[in-house]
């Protein structure tokens, strides 16, 4: 099934869902295979090292440094990887309520990591896009 491209439909069906698990972004200087025991929910390879998104409890148990604790918001709409404007729409909504966002796009959904203290404010701002 192909994802949705039409911005008005994406916004109407945006359906943000909050995962209140405390997640953190960490970086390690190890190959991904060595980090799989940390059960990362997302990874990204950068020149400076491997970025891992893991539960805060895992990072603490392995003494991994991080700067802030975040919650994940998943947009339940199946957005196309080629859709134009969705990221801008929710980014602008979050900017209006002064909430930072780190975005990962999966094949089916967009996942937005926001500071845990701002999660309910972020959910409300994104839900308002559907009206």
TrEMBL record:
InterPro entries: ACT-like_dom_sf (IPR045865), CASTOR_ACT_dom (IPR027795), DUF2241 (IPR018717). Residues 2-69 form the DUF2241 domain. It comes from Pseudoalteromonas peptidolytica F12-50-A1. It comes from the Bacteria. The lineage of its organism: Bacteria, Pseudomonadati, Pseudomonadota, Gammaproteobacteria, Alteromonadales. Residues 73-127 form the CASTOR ACT domain. Pfam families: ACT_3, ACT_7. This is Uncharacterized protein.
């Amino acid at each position: 099934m192909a994802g949705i491209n039409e911005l008005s439909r994406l916004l109407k069906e945006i359906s943000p869902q909050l995962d209140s698990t405390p997640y953190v972004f960490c970086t390690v200087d190890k190959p991904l295979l060595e980090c799989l025991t940390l059960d990362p929910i997302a990874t990204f390879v950068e020149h400076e090292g491997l970025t891992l998104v893991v539960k805060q409890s895992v990072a603490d148990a392995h003494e991994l440094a991080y700067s802030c604790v975040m919650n994940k918001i998943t947009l339940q709409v199946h957005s196309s990887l080629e859709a134009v404007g969705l990221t801008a729409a929710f980014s602008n909504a979050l900017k209006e309520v002064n909430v930072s966002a780190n975005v990962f796009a999966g094949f089916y959904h967009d996942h937005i990591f926001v500071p845990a203290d701002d999660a309910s404010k972020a959910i409300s701002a994104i839900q308002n896009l559907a009206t």
